[in-house]
Specification:
about 400 residues; alpha/beta; TIM Barrel; Lyase, Ornithine Decarboxylase, Chain A, domain 1; 2 domains; nine-stranded mixed sheet; eight-stranded parallel β-barrel; about 25% strand
């Protein structure tokens, strides 16, 4: 059976290119973040693409995602970034998932699961998250010594890595990141004093890789601590760069990397109906658009239930025949109307691009996730992850 014509095309070669580009830019291990269904791009497509590109580590949010990633990527190291939830310890161990921990009950959950399945000493790897200012996940330095007492040398858990999140790596002065690194240094001293020797300092994101000063600071911190640096690119893998809040020192390398990133996702639908409007006729719920002159409009098979945000009503556009067709009226749950008055020859079945590029005879137009985000007062991450599961992901 043919599907409703609303789909995204995923260029896995672009994803692989982006991973290799970032990997070549920094002497560190890269963990490919494929959580949230690979930022809405499809874990089934992007997980294997990351492995083909050379990734050894994948990052997911939950044990459930980790199990799915394990089925797709049997040889990968898989990090569960949001930790285990109660009752998930045995599944994490069974599927060889490395979980992030920061609460005593995380350790108890994994230790009991390890006991039940007969794991030997130091056989279940974990990454310990440090709270360094974001106040989201992680154990603060003040509580670290008490937590470390739950990691006996003869126990099943192996402290394989230390993790924190550089939440202001896109800021130009680097002050917040330096404060975070000072806390990390304190934590490492305590950990070494407890005779624990993690292998990884797991601390980066896309902005950390693209920003030369932050990247260098992370490399320096890892080297001083005798740890291997692990960075966690997310958005950049999908072809977009975080927006730096101001001019970043040494920005030329950043600009060069940004220019080489390739977009991975193109979101498409088709024209399913056409009609002519007379002056005074309205479009959509509550008649928020009123024709002031004769118009021709096209109905598209996409709506807010597919992830096309309602905030784009009367503001956004689609590309048809390489030209911008403004959205008119309110976006409905399953349908959207666009103005094609100035686009000659539009027919039922014509392709419409919601995110991505399309060419006409004379030019090439692009609608980006950044543009959607600005119109909706949000961020590209939310634009991507809002694309609904019912929208088919198609490899190209």
């Amino acid at each position: 059976m043919h599907r409703r014509p609303c789909w995204v095309e995923i260029d896995t070669r672009a994803f692989e290119h982006n991973y290799r580009l970032l990997a070549a830019s920094v002497p560190a291990e890269l963990l490919a973040v494929v959580k949230a269904n690979a930022y809405g791009h499809g874990l089934a497509l992007c997980g294997p693409a990351a492995i083909r590109a050379g990734a050894r580590w994948l990052g997911v949010t939950t044990v459930e995602e980790g199990i799915e990633a394990r089925a797709l990527c049997p040889t990968a190291e898989i990090l569960v970034i949001s930790g285990p939830f109660p009752g998930q310890g045995q599944a994490a161990i069974k599927h060889r998932l490395t979980t992030v921990v920061w609460e005593p009950w995380h350790l108890a959950e994994l230790q009991e699961a390890a006991r039940l399945v007969g794991c030997g000493p130091q056989s279940v790897p974990i990454h310990l998250e440090l709270e360094t200012g974001m106040n989201r996940q992680g154990v603060a330095v003040a509580g670290l010594e008490a937590l470390l007492k739950h990691l006996p040398a003869d126990g099943p858990l192996k402290l394989d890595g230390l993790l924190t999140h550089p939440f202001a790596a896109d800021e130009p002065d680097n002050l917040v990141t330096n404060e975070q690194l000072a806390l990390v240094a304190q934590a490492i001293q305590l950990i070494h004093s407890a005779q624990l020797r993690p292998a990884w300092l797991n601390i980066g994101n896309s902005a950390s890789i693209l920003s030369g000063p932050v990247r260098n600071a992370l490399l320096h911190s890892a080297s001083n601590a005798g740890l291997n640096l692990m960075l966690r690119p997310g958005l950049a893998l999908y072809g977009l760069s975080p927006e730096f809040s101001a001019t970043v020192p040494n920005e030329t390398p950043i600009t060069a990397l940004q220019a080489q990133l390739q977009p991975v996702l193109t979101w498409k639908t088709r024209v399913v109906s056409l009609r002519n409007l007379s002056p005074g006729q309205v479009v959509g719920y509550n008649g928020t658009f009123v024709a002031t002159e004769p118009m021709r409009v096209a109905l598209l098979a996409v709506g807010y239930a597919d992830g096309l945000r309602r905030a784009l009503s009367n503001r956004g556009s689609a590309l048809i025949a390489g030209e911008r067709a403004p959205i008119v009226g309110r976006i409905s749950m399953d349908q959207t109307v666009v103005d094609v008055t100035d686009i000659p020859g539009v027919r039922v079945g014509d392709e419409a691009v919601l995110l991505g590029s399309q060419s006409s005879a004379s030019s090439r137009q692009t609608i980006s996730a950044e543009q959607h985000a600005r119109l909706c007062e949000t961020i590209p991450w939310e634009v991507f992850t809002s694309i609904a599961e019912r929208v088919e992901r198609v490899p190209v």
